[in-house]
């Protein structure tokens, strides 16, 4: 009788810990994460998905000695709670889930550290209260009563394993592509629960480096076939910028809504607003970056490949073979390629990746005179950055491709009084209010840069490509943005806010606004068209924006996309104009191509497939 009691006490205690963790998981999933609930099955999944694995993990405490190990149980509760809380804080900032690779590049993840306290809420304390109670309770109990019979242990683990299998089946019923679409993290977390999601994500991270070893040339041929299917229609603009130098400017965190936007009666980007009148201005180009932020935008522009779903390609695959813009330009017209950036050269692993991308020279922080007065936030301010760059630019061998990465307009958008050319906005969101001033500063820095290039006689032989690298106002501050723009928060507007400006300025060429829909991945093909370089065999997923089919979806890294009339996001289909939910059938015709493009691009990157296709 006493033995039986001991046996059940140990099991009950283990069940209790699993139960507490389950409750926390469910509460965080339902309240902390803004998971989109599309069907009753979603709720069932959220409630059940963690049960099996929580039982399994807590059951491991049976195997440390003869008795249930109190300290192991407490450690599991502590670690489980810590992971969930980490997830919650990360989600509050990024509206996304932590991935294993991002943990290795935390130095490059701007923003979170400075504002971690801001992300916390007093309510969070409830998540930790039980630790004290359970800790005290466990401490008081005598270990001798925790013995669990072998048979019971086996049953416990068998039941939990069965439940894990059932959960996975349920997840697969929800979506048969659950695992092949693991980039859709919301779907993963919804279907597997946050803790299982982490385990799967770690497994993916371990598997990724092995992929290179198991691919062969025939895998490369399959990708090649797909990439060469694209049309190569020519327009009258083919070659209008032939032989010109290329100056590419990455406008940090610049979203398209700032173009022609007034705040307190003043233009936020007066220079850009003027420039677009004499430029090709692409007004419907979407940010397609993921966790690699600026580096993801660079990747798309230089290689025409999609970023990875987790982590930055610059950090994860810097030694691959790439067929990048510097390589193409060198091959066709013997261009010299240089990158200019005021931050340290190791940020985003640029020092290594730029070699693979074919840059001849990288002017980084060490090449600039950086003082406390001329720096803010991540480093040298954009005005002195451009000013100091001109002398380097003048001395480059021509023709050249020069890439400039600006820095000042970066979260949390800090600016000194002397650099403030417009008053802050007046919304309830400080971040949005400040953003306007740093964008205005960026605009001024580009204006000065152009002026100087004109004075130095560099301007007229150059084609300029200016693009916003990614959002500045994340979803977390979306309300402030809607307040600024006087719009309601809905999917249609959120989608619009994902647009970044793309301006291609060819001196002497008449301006035109192009409303063709596209993404950052299309910038390269568009530029090559103007430079008169054929793009058929350039191994890229991009399309020339002058001829792009608007109904070819603009694919985002989480599997969402925008087609001509619809938006697919968080597993829901919406009308692009009014943001209203529509039957998912409208989005279904695009699913295959989206899945295929992401998969092929991942294969190329993880398998380093271009080494088979490109002659080095
Ligand atoms: C820093 C720059 C900005 O070098 O790339 O970082 P990000 O926008 O990627 O956070
Ligand atoms: Mn950036």
UniProtKB/TrEMBL annotation:
UniProt xrefs under CDD domains: LTA_synthase
Topology in the lipid bilayer: Multi-pass membrane protein
Keyword Transferase: yes
Residues in Sulfatase N-terminal domain copies: 244-533
Gene3D superfamilies reported in the protein's UniProt record: 3.30.1120.170, Alkaline Phosphatase, subunit A (3.40.720.10)
Matching Pfam families: Sulfatase
EC nos: 2.7.8.-
Uppermost EC category: transferase
GO terms assigned for molecular function: transferase activity
Keywords, sorted A to Z: Cell membrane, Membrane, Transferase, Transmembrane, Transmembrane helix
Major localization class: membrane
Location in the cell: Cell membrane
Protein name: LTA synthase family protein
Organism this protein belongs to: Bacillus seohaeanensis
């Amino acid at each position: 009788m006493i033995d039986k009691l001991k046996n059940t006490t140990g099991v009950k205690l283990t069940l209790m810990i699993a139960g507490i963790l389950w409750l926390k998981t469910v509460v965080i999933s339902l309240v902390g994460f803004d998971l989109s609930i599309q069907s009753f099955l979603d709720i069932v999944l959220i409630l059940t998905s963690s049960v099996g694995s929580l039982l399994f993990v807590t059951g491991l405490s049976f195997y440390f000695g003869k008795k249930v190990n109190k300290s192991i149980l407490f450690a599991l509760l502590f670690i489980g709670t810590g992971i969930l809380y980490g997830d919650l804080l990360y989600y509050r900032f990024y509206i996304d889930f932590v991935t294993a690779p991002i943990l290795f590049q935390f130095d490059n993840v701007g923003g979170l550290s400075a504002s971690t306290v801001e992300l916390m809420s007093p309510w969070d304390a409830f998540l930790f209260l039980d630790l004290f109670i359970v800790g005290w309770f466990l401490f008081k109990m005598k270990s001798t009563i925790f013995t669990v019979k072998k048979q019971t242990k086996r049953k416990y683990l068998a039941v939990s394993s069965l439940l894990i299998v059932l959960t996975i089946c349920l997840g697969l019923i929800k979506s048969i592509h659950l695992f092949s679409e693991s980039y859709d993290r919301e779907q993963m977390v919804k279907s597997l629960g946050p803790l299982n999601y982490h385990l799967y994500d770690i497994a993916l991270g371990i598997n990724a480096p092995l992929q290179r070893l198991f691919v062969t040339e025939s895998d490369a041929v399959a990708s090649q076939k797909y990439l060469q299917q694209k049309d190569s229609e020519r327009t009258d603009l083919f070659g209008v910028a032939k032989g010109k130098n290329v100056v590419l400017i990455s406008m940090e965190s610049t979203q398209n809504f700032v173009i022609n936007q007034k705040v307190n009666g003043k233009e936020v980007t007066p220079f850009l607003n003027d420039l677009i009148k004499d430029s090709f201005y692409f007004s419907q180009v979407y940010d397609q970056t993921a966790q690699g932020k600026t580096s993801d935008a660079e990747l798309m522009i230089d290689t025409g490949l999609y970023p990875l779903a987790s982590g930055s390609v610059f950090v994860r695959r810097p030694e691959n073979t790439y067929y990048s813009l510097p390589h193409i330009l060198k091959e066709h017209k013997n261009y010299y390629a240089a990158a200019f950036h005021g931050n340290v050269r190791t940020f985003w692993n640029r020092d290594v990746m730029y070699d693979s991308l074919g840059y001849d020279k990288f002017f980084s922080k060490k090449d600039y005179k950086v003082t406390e007065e001329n720096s803010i936030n991540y480093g040298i301010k954009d005005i002195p950055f451009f000013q100091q760059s001109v002398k380097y630019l003048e001395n480059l061998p021509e023709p050249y491709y020069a890439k400039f990465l600006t820095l000042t307009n970066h979260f949390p958008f800090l600016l000194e009084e002397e650099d403030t050319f417009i008053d802050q906005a007046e919304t309830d969101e400080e971040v949005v209010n400040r953003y306007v001033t740093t964008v205005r500063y960026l605009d001024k820095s580009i204006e000065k840069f152009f002026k100087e290039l004109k004075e130095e006689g560099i301007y007229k032989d150059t084609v300029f490509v200016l693009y916003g690298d990614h959002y500045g106002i994340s979803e977390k501050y979306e309300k402030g943005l809607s307040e600024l723009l006087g719009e309601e928060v809905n999917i249609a507007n959120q989608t619009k806010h994902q647009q970044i400006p793309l301006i291609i300025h060819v001196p002497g060429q008449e301006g035109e606004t192009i409303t063709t829909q596209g993404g950052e991945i299309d910038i390269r093909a568009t530029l090559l068209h103007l430079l008169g370089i054929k793009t058929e065999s350039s191994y890229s997923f991009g399309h020339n924006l002058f001829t792009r089919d608007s109904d070819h979806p603009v694919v985002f890294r989480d599997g969402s996309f925008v087609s001509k009339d619809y938006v697919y996001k968080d597993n829901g289909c919406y009308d692009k104009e009014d943001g209203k939910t529509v039957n998912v059938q409208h989005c279904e015709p695009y699913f295959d191509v989206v899945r295929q493009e992401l998969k092929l691009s991942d294969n190329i990157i993880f398998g380093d497939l271009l080494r088979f296709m490109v002659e080095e």
